[in-house]
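Cont'd.
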Amino acid sequence: MSEVTVGRRPRVVVVGAGFGGINAAMELGKLPVDVTVVDRRNHHTFQPLLYQVAMAVLSPADIAQPIRSILNGFNNIEVTMDEVQAIDKESKRLKLSSGTVLAYDYLIVATGSTHSYFGHDDWAKLAPGLKTVEDATEIRRRVLLAFELAERQMLETGTHPPLNFVVIGGGPTGVELAGAISDISRLYMTKDFRHIDPSVATVMILEGSPAILGAYPKDLQEKAVEQLHALGVQTRTGSHVTEIGEGYVKIGDERIESVCTLWAAGVQPSPLGKALGVEVDRKGCVLVDEHLNPAGHPEIFVCGDLAHFEQDGKQVPGVAQPAMQMGKYAAQRIGLLISGRAAGQKAFRYFDKGDMATIGRKAAVARIVWPFKANWSGFMAWITWLTVHVFFLIGFRNRFSVFREWAWTYIWKRDGVRLIVGSQDLPGWDQLADKELAARQATSSLPLD
Amino acid sequence: MSEVTVGRRPRVVVVGAGFGGINAAMELGKLPVDVTVVDRRNHHTFQPLLYQVAMAVLSPADIAQPIRSILNGFNNIEVTMDEVQAIDKESKRLKLSSGTVLAYDYLIVATGSTHSYFGHDDWAKLAPGLKTVEDATEIRRRVLLAFELAERQMLETGTHPPLNFVVIGGGPTGVELAGAISDISRLYMTKDFRHIDPSVATVMILEGSPAILGAYPKDLQEKAVEQLHALGVQTRTGSHVTEIGEGYVKIGDERIESVCTLWAAGVQPSPLGKALGVEVDRKGCVLVDEHLNPAGHPEIFVCGDLAHFEQDGKQVPGVAQPAMQMGKYAAQRIGLLISGRAAGQKAFRYFDKGDMATIGRKAAVARIVWPFKANWSGFMAWITWLTVHVFFLIGFRNRFSVFREWAWTYIWKRDGVRLIVGSQDLPGWDQLADKELAARQATSSLPLD
């Protein structure tokens, strides 16, 4: 194992290429530093649109972009697809899973968060969450297969099976998933099936807290619930899930049938936070000061969901905008530190432009703070949502193809990309391997009836 | 289990929704029959462009279309995502894996073929073949990861690792894969890496028979080899692979290093051929007469790769065109049989328009038979290939998006869709689960060096 030799220029390592890491890297690309970006994946994912991949409106390639292509214009940035295995803050070195050791002068940690099943890790298989492109493909597979299985059951038994979808968690992701399932079942799938009626599908959101979209103002919460109900989505608040099984969810003693259960209830920070060996909060987010440094380490920056940053007495939320701003701030601060001009830099301050969540095909709620203050709901909020999301997609190619797919799907109500890819196993699906199948078929007496 | 009740109209069951099955179904949609299409997958795959998904030029959604959306304009067609488990020719019934029993008056079997590893089924994991969207995604993952791993190795060790790709099989698929790997390594990936030089990658085609593109005329075979060599692809004919292992391929005692091995050497017919209980050839293809029926069963049609149909003393090849023509013929014959006008129908005859294979970004070989006879190679053949393939894609949406992606990739040499999705395991990649990682990192003494 050889160490990376010390260059003349300061070395910056960015761990994680989500919103925080990518924005830091693009800013560092302009500075006289040598940058290494480390990520386990080869692509940056535009997470706010991931639910549209899950709902077969967009393809993975529409919302994910290889990290190398985003950054290949910057000659001072190298990318390695790897994982951090250990951090030594004293010698300022990282060890990666491949064995590579990276020395750094400055370190930006932006490894984000993952699903939290609140100690019930066995729920992960029963109710997948939505963080990665693979998650989105898996959710798409399960939702589409639920309709396929219902059609098969009806062909076999002659009775219409129930089609109840359950989304656990009433934050933006849960609301978006539920609205989209309702949409595709009522608008896009009806003409595809001869036996079942996809429009009888019901969707239920189970939220543990007292409100749907808890982070939004009261009036938008109410509008969101109204719009969800208009789509036929049921919402139950104050409902703590106590058990998830194949085909059902339990709230205490009450059993709710579910052909497909999705998880949008909680996230936990990346374990790299604790591994840094600095002060973390109860959840494991790293407490950072006004310059996004953990105490005593002005050379380490923590950005995005992994950072616990307090502003006006409240923790800045773990969403895309603060992560992007933090990444940019950290990179700029490194530039100022290098040139000895950091003393005058203002503290980091999250500039809140607002939040948005779509509810189905043509409604949304938007808490707008900038460039003017307003709480919008309905169609105007949805148009705003569309515009902002296309604008923030990285890469012209993606913007163009996303716009085209949306026009295709929303305006002309045409087919999305309803491919079922991956395993075709489903409960009750007695799948046979080809050979086994051939062997059985080769027997002369056929087991018909 | 209830049987499907006997309707007034003849019932036709189509098994398999590849080129044969889909073309049969679209023709049956116009007839006074009730049709059930059975397929294990929810989508029809345009296999001639699958290698472009594998090579990150196209996305799965560009070349695959849900069977339901292709057929949803025909009210007399139902689709079920299921698998045939048993066929009873006497009572004219099929049993599906779900337990559903389908009665038929006419049956079209078009379940195609799958990879054949000539008895070495353990090679499947070491050298994936290309038949499905999942195969394409897996090949893409392996090819892209080979470059990522080389970059990591160079970052760690400082020496440039070899980048040899081996494609086993010199038919159209092997030639297309090899040409495309050469292209992406030389044209698209060079600006993405800081340490390795992707353009030093070598690609080798190993073919067991004496010629590359054995089914093509001699002059086109020679042109193809010329064009492959111009791209830096090595070709070895008469080379029988005797062993495949992690990182190598053996021809007798000779060991060839390989960072990624792909299989394009052989196919075998679906086991449903033998399961029909009619006469099959040595490979397992069903021997069919001039009306595509197995002997003694005028109500059963076998179409596409699964059929062994002799014309002018030769077996019609297992490619898209004959399958499409067979599917259409079988459906038309069913129409004539129903209306009592079948006696005058001509025997099936494959109308051979020609064959084409691309060789990289702007060359191809084309054996054109219709509308005029010519053997073309080079750029003109490539333009012909482009035109024909866009024209035959089912669905305007797909044609449009494929055209756009090609323009993007070929004309402007821009990024394709180089996403690595799925497992990130690779030989030598010591991957750690998050928890294990956290546990290791939490220990205070760090194992650096």
